[in-house]
Amino acid sequence: MDRLSNTVRPYAWGSTTLIPELLGAAPTGEPQAEMWMGAHPGAPSQTGRGSLHDIIGADPLRELGRPALEAFGPRLPFLLKLLAAGAPLSLQVHPDRAQAQEGFAAEEKAGIPLDAPHRNYKDDNHKPELVCALTPFDGLCGFRPPGEAADFVAGLDVDSLKPYVDLLHAHPEEAALREVLTAVLSADPEEMAHTVAEAAAAAERLGGPYAPFAAIAHHFPGDPGVIAAMLLNHVRLQPGEGLFLGAGVPHAYLGGLAVEIMANSDNVLRCGLTPKHVDVPELLRVVRFEAGDPAVLRPEASPSGEELYDTPIDEFRLSRFVRPEGAAPVDLALPTPQILLATAGRPKAGQLTLAPGESVFVPAGEKAELSGKGTVFRATVAV
User: Fold this and answer.
1) Which of 165, 229, 255, 293 has its CA 20 to 30 A from that of 151?
2) Is 325 exposed, middle or buried (0-12, 13-18, 19+ CB in 10 A)?
C-alpha cells in the first residue's frame, strides 16, 4: 500500500483552522478548503512510486482490479476529500450522466475552451456526492415544500417578496418551485439587491431559523442566491451523520469539517452565492423541482465493526471504523481499490501508522489489515 501526500486547495470559502486542527498543525492564516485524496488529474495524490494518477495509468488492471476496470474504465472512479467550510459554498446542482454527456458534447462542438469561465461541463460524467460530518456541519439540501417555503419567506414581512409568496401558494409543487426560482434568478439585479438587503435585515432581527440566511447574506450581499437559498431545507449534521446529494438536488455547504466522496467529475451548475458564471437556462434544465425532507444518513454497523453509509451509487462506497482500545485487527483486503483516511487516534494500516488526516492507497487485491485505536474512513467502489 502507498502512503499518500495530498494537496490542500486554498479556496476563499475555506476555514483557516479546521484542517490544521485535525492535522495537529499551526494555521497559516490562509483558507484551507479541501484536501484531495485520489487520482484526479487536477491535483493527484503523490506516493513513493509517483502520482496516483500516473501509477493507475501505467497498470490499471493491477491497481484497480478487474471489477472496477470493467465497470469504470482505467481510472479511479471516485475522489475523496476533507472539506472545511468557513463560509458558504456556492448554491449549486450537479447533472445526471445523460445531461452531462449531452452538455459536454454540445460545449465541445461549440468550441468552448475547458477553462472558459462560462463553461458548464468540464467532463461527461455525473457527480453524485456524499458528505459525512466530522464536526457539527451546516448545509442546505433540497427544496422545502412550497407551502412551507411560502410561510418562511412571508415571515420576513418584506413587501418585494410577497409576489414570490403568492406564486408558491398558487401553483402545483413543481411549477411553483420552478416559477419562483426562475423569477428570483431573472430579476433586475438592482431591485433584487434591494430585496436581499431588506430580507437580510429582517432575518438578522428575527434570528432563530432565519439566522443562517442572515449569515449567508453577510457573505454575499445583494446576491439573488440568498433568496433562492430560503427555498431550501437547512440541515445541521452531527458528527458521524451523512447526507447524500444526487443529481439535480440544489445544495450548499455553510460551515464545518466533513469527509466528502464523489464521482470523479467537476460538473457544477450554480444558482448563486458566487461571483462565478450562473447559466440560468441550463440550471433550470438540470434542477429537479421536487420537495421533501433531506434524508440524513446514519451508518449501518456490521459484525466486523465496519459502518456503511448506504448510497445508490456504484462509483463509490464509504464506510468507517470506530475502533476502541484493544479491538481485534480487521482484514480489509478487497478486489477493488481503496483509500483509507484516519480522522482520530493513531490506527495502523498494515505497518503504516496513520495520524489524523493521513491516508493510504490500497491497490485491488492487496493484503491490508487495520489495527490499533482510532477512526478510519474507507473509500472504495460498489462493484
Assistant:
1) 255
2) exposed
The DSSP-derived string for 282-330 is: HHHHH----B----EE-PEE-TTSEEEE--S-SS-EEEEEEE-TTPPPE
Task: For 41-169, list the strands marked E by DSSP.
Answer: 46-47, 50-51, 78-85, 91-93, 129-133, 137-143
Strand pairing partners for 256? 85
Report d(CA 230, CA 216) in Å as an integer.
Answer: 10
Residue 372 exposure: Cα atoms within 13 Å on the Cβ side: 18
Q: What is the pLDDT of residues 36-90, one digit of tens each?
A: 999 988 899 999 999 999 999 999 999 999 999 999 999 999 999 999 999 999 9
Residue whose C-alpha cell reads 401558494 in the numeric block: 169
Provide the 8-state DSSP code for 5: B
Locate 284 and state its grid cell: 433550470
Q: How confident is the model at residue 259 (pLDDT cuts 50, 70, 90)?
A: very high
Give the Å distances, CA to CA, from 4 to 1, 35, 192, 210. 10, 11, 47, 42
Instruction: Compute the distance between CA of residue 32 and CA of residue 85 in angstroms, rounded to an integer.
Output: 9
DSSP assignment string, 26-76: ---SS-B-EEEES--TTS--EETTEEHHHHHHH-HHHHH-HHHHHHH-SS-
How are beta strands 46-47 and 50-51 bridged, if at all?
antiparallel
Instruction: Quick: pLDDT tens for 125-137.
Output: 899 999 999 999 9
Report, as residue numbers or ranges, the catalytic residues: 270
**Any idea which residue has 483552522 for its cell?**
17
Contact in structure between 4 and 80 (CB atoms under 8 Å)? no
Q: How many Å apart are CA 253 and CA 247, to the nearest integer?
A: 16
Phi/psi for 68 (5° steps) reads -70, -40
- Pairing state of beta strands 137-143 and 251-263? antiparallel
Query: CA 153, CA 148: separation in Å to the nearest integer?
Result: 9
